[in-house]
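Good morning,

Both structures are done.
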Amino acid sequence: MKFADDKNGVPNNRELYALLHISPEATDEEIRKAYRQWAQIYHPDKYQAPQMKEIATENFQRICEAYEILCDENKRQIYDIYGMEGLTSGLELGPKLNKVEEIKEELERLRRQKEQEKVLAHVQPSGSILANLSLPQFLEGDGIMRGMAMASEVHSKISKHNAISLGGNLAVNGNSGGGAASVVLRHQISSDSSVEFMGSLGLRALIGVQTSRQLSLHSTATMGVAMSLRDGSINLSNTWSRQLSETTNGNIELILGPESSIGVGWQKKEQKNAASGEIKIGTGSFGAVGHYTHRFSLKSHGRIAGRVGSSGLELEVGGGRKVSNFTTIRMLYTIGIQGIFWKFELHRGGQKLIVPILLSNHLNPVFASGAFIIPASLYFALKKFVFKPYYLRREKQKFLENLEKTQGQVREARAAAEKAQQLLQNVANRKRNKQLEMGGLVVTKAVYGNRKALTTRNRSVEKVDEVASQIIDVTLPLNFLIDESGRLKLHDGVKKSGIMGFCDPCPGEPKQLYVEYTYGGNKYEAIVDDYEELLIPQERHRI
């Protein structure tokens, strides 16, 4: 049974499984067997010297804690879903919570409760500014500004179960303009249902009420009714949303009123890709939209979007770059029936600045090609000469800050890992000598740590001293973990820093394990990511 981390889809640390060197799928018997094997190595009664006895006691306590958690069905289920956080969150154990769904729902309830307490009385502002510019209009001498719009909203908790949102917007287009103000009061009826009361004045004056309810762990329904204060017309809306898979959601929306419509949409979000689409058919219109975003790295992404329907045809291509934790810049190129546009967007926190620039009202192929090439060239020039140097400086600064902050923690973890290796040494050496005699598997070098440091280490011997603080030698523990059949397996989905004799030498940085080994007189080499399975020997590793 495997679960993904809620935040980013990466498996939980599962360090207890790594500590006992077992799979997350291990049976109770396999857990007991692993515990007995480790206890033979680390039981304090085996050692007479005070220093060795102290090392054994410390590691034996870790083994006992892992065994107690993984042998208890409820505790293990909680640990599998939420790690150690779930075990320390106040979740009550007992016969009432004997299913994964029940445990997950209860832990979610506790999390929501903590979040509500944390954000109580917090104010969350958001807003946007849209400036429509026109190059043809400017060349004709009528000024460059086509129109402008501003919107702002403030969301605030007013009590444990109630929140209020106040918003307003103004828009000017040519010689006409208008505005609106709105208020939404939200009441949380229970952990899975809420109701909202809304009202607005201005261009779209209306009053309405909307209620939402979580029907199951994977589906939600929303129903609403709104009445226009201008003509008294009533709109009814129904939306059903369902989680189709771990990364995909679907929804159906039905609106009944003066402009009735039905829409079907879906959204899929993975670590590197995101896509969405919607088809909407109304009494007087129809349309379809689609978006696809690909993340080239943690900082940059590309985007393509299209829209077709009774109101127009449009294609949008572009990309964006994250320049800080709160700021993202996007450059987009749009071509459609309304003309050819450049669009620049600046997102910071909850605020957005959007500047569409109309380049031409006519779809000239030559002009359209030039309009696409110019911003693309500008983007790549900015990326190479401005963004990349800036990011490299920032990453280096953050790396040094993190290094300084975690120096003490890493020093202690290294010391604990070295002590654990001391007690493994005798058995590891016996296994190594036996494999050497048989011409079997022998790990000659293994290092674990910062991915960039390992790449540098493999590429240039002269730089070893610069990266030594970011890696740890784990040759001895890997030789110890070779089984009776002469094979070594590190399980998939288990973070390697939890393995006995390992530690995390660079918290917060992506890590890899690099292994050199011999088998049958031949040399082999393998490198795997932190959560990736390692199985040796394998012919494809042969040098």
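Second structure follows.
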Amino acid sequence: MMHKYKNSEAKNCLIDKHIAFIGDSRIRQLFYSFIKLINPQVKEEGNKHGNIPFEDKSASIKVDFLWYPEVNGSMRQHIKSWTEAAMAKPHIIVAGAATWSIKIHNGSNEALAQYKINITSIAPLLEKLAKSSDVYWVLQDPVYEDMLSESRKMITNEKIDAYNEAAVRILNSSSRNSKAKVKVFSVSKLIAQETIMKSSDGLHLPESSRETNAMILMNVYCNKILKPIDGSCCQPQPPLTLIQKLAFCFFTLSIIGYLIINLIHRNNYRKNKSCTDLENGEEKKPAISTPTVSTLEMLLHSFCKLGLIMTYFYLCDRANLFMKENKFYTHSSFFIPIIYILVLGVFYTENTKETKVLNREQTDEWKGWMQLVILIYHISGASTFLPVYMHIRVLVAAYLFQTGYGHFSYFWIKGDFGVYRVCQVLFRLNFLVVVLCIVMDRPYQFYYFVPLVTIWFMIIYVTLAVWPQIVQKKANGNCFWHFGLLLKLICLLICIYFLSYSQGAFEKIFSFWPLSKCFELNGNVYEWWFRWKLDRYVVFHGMLFAFIYLALQKHQVLSEGKGDPLFSNRVSNVLLFISVVCFLTYSVWASSCKNKTDCNELHPSVSVVQILAFILIRNIPGYVRSVYSSFFAWFGKISLELFICQYHIWLAADTKGILVLIPGYPVLNVMVSTFIFVCVAHEISQITNDLAQIVVPKDNPALLKRLLCIAGFFSGLLLFSAIQDQSRH
């Protein structure tokens, strides 16, 4: 993966540095492309066959081009002066030449022999410089022979290959005898093989290829200094933190513990196995008993599986084991998979167990197809296409809408505000993310969606749980309570409105320790404020929709029988027509967006239009409401795990790129990585469910003990995190 350096980043990396480019016209091209990364306003002026200086005084950066078109005594003398000079040597040296030697000597074998002698004499000097500087030897790019002028016809790809082969052999031979190493910059040659036919003269690369070469050179040097997430080249593997080491020890002990218990059980099973009666040859069978799995064994089994899965996570996205590649968006890479999964989803259509609006199977189906679309959006890099981005924003809003709808419905109908319910929800939402924060050394806010749904769940809980607690059972006895609930919702809306337009107040709330440890990203809570603000009203809309729907259902306004339209035929047809028009109108508006910032400002207020339109289209016709896609519903049940796991084992470099398990076969790579990714997400969902039963028991005294243990765990985590931060600084 290649990080695209901005000029501010380039200056930050190269501050107080001296860079020297020494060679022919091709090196001069690379020089100009390189300094344009520092100052885009630079123009290619001056004597083409002479030295060209460049200096950026604001960052004290000095870049020189030195005209030495042949590898000869003159070039050697200048390089030797660097090794002998008392003054500071260049921090980066980029050298290369050959085409002039081929041209001047008409491609003779004698010239090649002399080139070998000259580069052999230069190699030890370059090795000496490489001890204190970064030295790169640029291999010669191929030429497009059909476009070469008559004076350059002797420069053939066969000759260039011979010169490159000689340079590589001599430099590698020299490196074997030295600890320092001259880096052979061969990527330019590979790029030229694909793009040289676009050259204006058959010899020099087109501008886009030169820019890529310069960007790669910047990545090679600067990635190890600035450590950008999306620059996978030339970075050392990050050292294990104290918390990561402790996690590794914990998972190792869990695996060992589970294996010991498993061996003991196997040994006991063999002892109890039926044995042959030696006297009559009859087999005595012991009483059949079903082995019970102890809580400890289930706990160790879950942590054993989780430890192996987390090892895979670490190897994929923290160890330099697998390659990563940049995303490149095309319409076909996004829309063809979308069509494919929609066909699959329709193929697996089944009847629902119940025909209520937004029944369990329907919401699982809704989550499933939305999650699959979001996954395709991420892997295809479709965020660069604004109409797709705006529609994906609606899907994220729809998840939060379901959060408001689902939790409000539960509290309103059940009236269960107990600690057990709260702990179960918080554990299921946050377990995987907490483990990943520890193993992958990432802040909680990095997995922004989980903090978002967690905070909104707590807001819904507090809104409904504070005095007076208004639930359906109480409200049915007196209509006055309905107005009381609406008053609570209005107060919530006012608070949301105030916080969305008071960034200072919002940041003060979430900047208090220890909340700041959860919601800061890159040293501030701006990202958290932006994410929260982007869908600030949609959870409220979900709560309001649930209230209105349950009120209509209670008064038997809706017809939810199998195959029956939701309202009378006339009303159903009118509402269906309005819903389709609203749905399409939103899509037209989203597709006409020109500016992401302006559209994001409108999104919180208008996203509910398409969400409500979809709900009505999906539920008004009786037949449509009575069926669901089991294919989408299966993915919907593990949608949270899919969303989180994609960060590290499907995508890579924290979602900036794509994980490459099988280089050179992109389709096969996506198939294999997707299969593993889905299996892992499903397994983590099972582990979370198993651990939730153990960690969050229904018995209140046991639950209190668990909560004290969890509080101790997070206190220890905060302590170790503080020690880590201190050691880093």
